[in-house]
């Protein structure tokens, strides 16, 4: 069952019901206009780019990302998201590393009691939003039962309309028990949680996504979202796919990167799961349409 792992949002609130404390502020465009050539072809104007350059141990650029804190009862995830560079930091080699640890030095409390794990979740709310274009990230996912990395987007009007009316675009999700498969999904009014509309992409020859970096992307235009892995398009969704429900994806969205531990969909870590586990992000880039 594919329950939405993180997206129960109060319609009149600007914070996550799962007690994340980062405010979801109205998004604003950022980044200088430039040109960039993406794997899918064509020259586009860059709307947002983070190459994660900086010294090892440095936090992410706070002008581009905010760090959420708290737990997530809605999907029964086991981690506590912290603002510590122990859980999200640059590695000095042009990467952001989000680290899930089996530890709790801050004595954080979760929905089930004392938290067993810490990790990180970052978003661009209040810093950057985009409507349509090409959205991509090059990521090496972690490995093991209970790991749940994701690169995804939420409608910027979430504070006023709530979830799922705001819409959610999952560019990439992976669960540890499917090491060779990622999923791309839409969630909206009438097609959320386990009723989300999407598909999976599986690597050939028994390869695992944790073995190396892969590029996860969407090409997004009015009335259409297409997903690709390493330039290979594996699904396209349009209003015809949402069963007569509202299509809520032609408006500004902000970006999210996170590494969850456990939950309804991936299941909890077990004795085979080694910690720490890392989600390594080479870059995140957003460009306008051709």
Short description:
The protein is an all-beta fold.
Structure write-up:
The protein is mainly beta. It has 1 helix and 20 strands. It has one helix spanning about 160, and strands at about 35, 45-50, 65-70, 80, 90, 95-100, 110, 115, 115-120, 120-125, 135-140, 145-155, 170-175, 180-185, 195-200, 215-220, 225-230, 230-235, 255-260, 275-285. A hairpin with a 2-residue loop joins strand 17 and strand 18 (about 230-235). The radius of gyration is 17 Å and the shape is globular. The N and C termini lie far apart (about 35 Å). Mean pLDDT is about 90; it is low at about 1-40.
End-to-end gap: 37 Å
Given the C-alpha coordinates, what overall shape results? globular
Main sheet characteristics: 9 strands, antiparallel
Name the helix and strand elements from N-terminus to C-terminus, one letter apiece: EEEEEEEEEEEEHEEEEEEEE
The counted number of beta strands is: 20
In DSSP terms, counting alpha (H) and pi (I) runs of 4 or more, how many helices?
A: 1
Blueprint of the fold:
Blueprint: E1 35-37, E2 43-50, E3 66-68, E4 79-81, E5 88-90, E6 96-100, E7 109-110, E8 113-114, E9 117-119, E10 121-123, E11 133-140, E12 147-155, H1 158-161, E13 168-173, E14 181-187, E15 197-202, E16 214-221, E17 224-229, E18 232-237, E19 253-261, E20 277-287
Parallel strand pairs: 4-9
Antiparallel strand pairs: 1-2, 2-20, 3-10, 5-6, 6-20, 7-8, 10-19, 11-16, 11-20, 12-13, 12-19, 13-14, 14-15, 16-17, 17-18
Kindly list the characteristics that best describe this protein.
1 helix, mainly beta, 290 residues, 9-stranded antiparallel sheet, disordered N terminus, 7-stranded antiparallel sheet, globular
């Amino acid at each position: 069952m594919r329950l939405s792992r993180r997206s129960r949002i109060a319609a009149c609130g600007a914070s996550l019901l799962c007690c994340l404390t980062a405010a979801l502020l109205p998004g604003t465009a950022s980044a200088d206009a430039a040109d960039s050539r993406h794997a899918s072809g064509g020259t586009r104007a860059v709307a947002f780019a983070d190459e994660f350059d900086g010294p090892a141990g440095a936090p992410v650029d706070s002008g581009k990302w905010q760090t959420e804190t708290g737990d997530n009862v809605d999907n029964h995830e086991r981690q506590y998201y912290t603002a510590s560079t122990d859980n999200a930091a640059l590695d000095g080699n042009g990467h952001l590393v989000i680290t899930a640890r089996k530890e709790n030095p801050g004595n954080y409390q979760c929905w089930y009691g004392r938290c067993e794990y810490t990790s990180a979740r970052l978003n661009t709310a209040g810093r950057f939003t985009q409507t349509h274009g090409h959205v991509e990230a090059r990521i090496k996912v972690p490995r093991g039962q209970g790991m749940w990395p994701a690169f995804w987007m939420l409608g910027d009007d979430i504070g006023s309309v709530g979830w799922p009316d705001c819409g959610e675009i999952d560019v990439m999700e992976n669960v540890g028990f499917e090491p060779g498969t990622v999923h791309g999904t839409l969630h909206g009014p009438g097609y959320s949680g386990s009723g989300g509309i999407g598909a999976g992409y599986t690597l050939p020859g028994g390869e695992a996504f944790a073995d190396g970096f892969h590029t996860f992307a969407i090409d997004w235009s009015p009335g259409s979202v297409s997903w690709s892995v390493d330039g290979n398009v594996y699904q396209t969704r349009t209003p015809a796919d949402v069963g007569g429900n509202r299509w809520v994806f032609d408006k500004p969205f902000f970006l999210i990167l996170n590494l969850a531990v456990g939950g309804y969909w991936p299941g909890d870590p077990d004795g085979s799961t080694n910690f720490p586990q890392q989600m390594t992000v080479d870059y995140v880039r957003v460009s306008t349409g051709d």
